[in-house]
Amino acid sequence: MSLAPPAKSTILVVDDIPDNLHLLTRELTDHGYETRAVLTGEMALTVAQSAAIDLILLDIMLPDMDGYAVCQALKENSATQDIPVIFVSALDDPFDKVKAFDVGGVDYLSKPVKMVEVIARINTQLSLRHAQQKLQLFNQNLEALVQQRTQELAQTNQALQAEIQVRQRAEQDLRLSEARYRLIANHMGDLVCLHNQDGDFLYISPSVQSLLGYRPDELQGKRLQDFCHPDDLPCLQLHFQESFQRAESITSAYRLRNQAGGYVWIETLAKAIMDEGEPITGIVTSSRDVTRRVNVERKLRYEALHDALTHLPNRDWLAKRLEMEILQCRRQLGRQFGLLMLDLDRFKAVNDSLGHLIGDKLLIAVAERLRATVRKVDMLSRWGGDEFIIFVEQVNHIDELVQVAEAINQALESPMEVDGKIIFTTASIGVLLGGANYGTSNEIFRDVDIALYRAKEQGRNRYEIFGLEMYQEALSLLTLENELREAIKNEAFVVYYQPIIDIKTRTLIGFEALTRWQHPLRGLIMPGGFIDLAEDSGLIKPIGKQILYQVCHTIAEWERLGYLEAWLQISINVSGQQFRDHNFIETLDHILIETGVKGTRLKLEITERILLEQSDSIARTLDAIHQRGITLSIDDFGTGYSSLRYLSQFSVETLKIDRSFVMQLQPGKSGIVQAIIDLAHNLEMDCIAEGVETEDQLHQLQRLGCEAAQGYLFAKPMPPDQAVQYLQSAPPTLETLLSQLS
Three-state SS across 396-440? Predict the structure, then answer.
């Protein structure tokens, strides 16, 4: 039985970004799929209800309703509830994944996606759905066949009852009745037998020879139980006893030994024989070979509960095991279990550098090492991707789980040889000790995933034990993220401006725009309180767009009032996610046109990491920025992954010296700052020092040749109205005085 997905399966792609829709639909069409593409959640629901859709690729961030609501609506509708939904999103937080599975998603892909993985996940889900549909159809046909056989058996019983009544009237009629019965039984494909109350064969139809290889006379004087598989004998005896106690038919399945010594799966329909008002005198059975069906069902069940690559139990099986363990913990006071979730460190680098085939073989090798590390009574499962979970039962103390975690790290210390290549790998491990305090497997997975995330966050190649404070922290982050989304909706972000001062003349040459979150309860929140979360959740892009618009609107207002000198610029931080966005330049153009601001007023501050990517899209974006007269600055230079080759390749005007280097400035100990300034000058750039707080720091920076500075020594970041006052009170620059004289 083939488990490949049916030809021309129809896939609905839901994404509010047309480029993503075009890429996915084109790739899916190339792989032989029919595709439908929509931009909104409402359109997705309409298409899913009106067209024959086999699978849905669903984005989470949609303009009208998020992907979770779309998936939940699909699952609540009987017409669409069976359509598999694979989430495809830039959101990579564990809670986003958990939520995706909670609302009914069958899988989760993180953007940017790899089409090989997308096609593999789609094929897997379509194959599973196709197999389930075929199994459902098979069961329906089987049910109809069972009903048909039941009717046939009922008819046969009626014939037997009639013959028994005739037997009481006349011997001749009895012989005629027996002849008719034998004629029917001898020509049936199913095995028909008659048994007494002890189970002895009273009659065996000739079809037994084609089914089991025995002649009917070889079974005379023997019992059905004599040929039953030992493991199935208790079930057979129970059903046989029930047949003598109940008037209705009983269906059972068991294995019978054939003449060659092997076993055949038999499905039997048993019915008691009795006259009206008389006790049961025997049992008539109708049996058929269902070995092929049982094997198919077993294969499907195995594939549904095992990982195809490593053949380890998958998370569905593990979830069932955990649900059973939770019940055991509730029944047995003090019973505890353990769970270890591990994630291979830098596994993506292996896939990217050596290919997915080597990556898959590495996963198989890791699975073998882990299997040798855990006890046989414990369960090793593959969660998906490069994540494995170990279930440890009957744990008395957390130290036992710590020993397992340390044993895993020790087992992975030795390098692995895969196709002649030596690969070193380590793992981050989340450790959880659980018991009756958990209600569902999802709660357990949630908490151990939090511990794993903490281990990765703390530097990888380590383990972290889950504690309640981790959950509270994760819950706080989720709450903060929800509030952050609401803040984006309400445009609750404000811009503060910190002056940038020319060190030689002590005159104002620009401002840096700094973001603040005006929280309704907590007041003004600094960037350190939400920027990292915004980066992780992908919310930095809409926030950055709002800030860029606010800054340009403020520049336009200041120009209208005549506050800005011609050369004064406003610096704005641009995140890597914004910079990689294909729509960034289009968004930038739209804001500049709407506000009437010239690009020469802006200086975009980016990180060194963006230049290191060296992608075509980054190069095109940089070129487009320069075409618009916008200048570039490298923010926090020296703290990241700087490269002289990349700096010289792109037209960067300014290097900003990070405050951490400025704070360490001491007489005779300024080597790092001096090196950065010399590098900037050699590349024909200028330098701006951040976080200048003392005159000593300023004097040293001036001595080292730094052109500009910003920090509390001059002014703290200020709201726009105070920035206007600062502009009005700032001393005129040399350029201003020269222009006035001319």
Answer: CCHHHHHHHHHHHHHHCCCCEEECCEEECCCEEEEEEEECCCCCC
Q: Could you tell me the pTM of the whole model?
A: 0.51
642, pLDDT greater than 70: no
Are β-strands 280-289 and 191-195 bridged in parallel, bridged antiparallel, or unpaired?
antiparallel
d(C-alpha 598, C-alpha 567), whole Å: 12
Side chain identity at residue 260, one-letter code: A
Unique residue bearing structure tokens 């620009």: 510
Residues 6+ apart with CB under 8 A from 539: 481, 484, 485, 488, 533
Instruction: Give the containing element (helix H, strand E) for 27.
Output: helix 18-30
Query: Long-range contacts for 561-566 (Cβ within 8 Å, ≥24 apart)?
Result: 561/724, 563/724, 563/727, 563/728, 564/601, 564/727, 565/733, 565/735, 565/736
Q: 63: how many CB neighbours lie within 10 A of its CB?
A: 10
Q: Which residue has the higher pLDDT, 276 or 118?
A: 118
Q: Using the Cα atoms of residue 78, residue 79, residue 82 and residue 87 in order, give the sign of their dihedral.
A: negative
Give the tens place of pLDDT for each residue, 130-149.
Answer: 888 788 888 888 888 888 88
Phi, psi of 508 (to 5 degrees): -75, 130
Residues 206 and 203: their CA atoms lie apart, in Å, by 10
Please tell me the predicted confidence (pLDDT) of residue 421. 86
Closest CA to 191 of 134, 270, 244: 270
Residue keyed to tokens 């197999």:
131
The DSSP string of 50-94 is HS--SEEEE-S--SSS-HHHHHHHHHHSTTTTTS-EEEEES---H
In SS3 terms, 169-223 reads as HCHHHHHHHHHHHHHHHHCCCCEEEEECCCCEEEEECCCHHHHHCCCHHHHCCCE
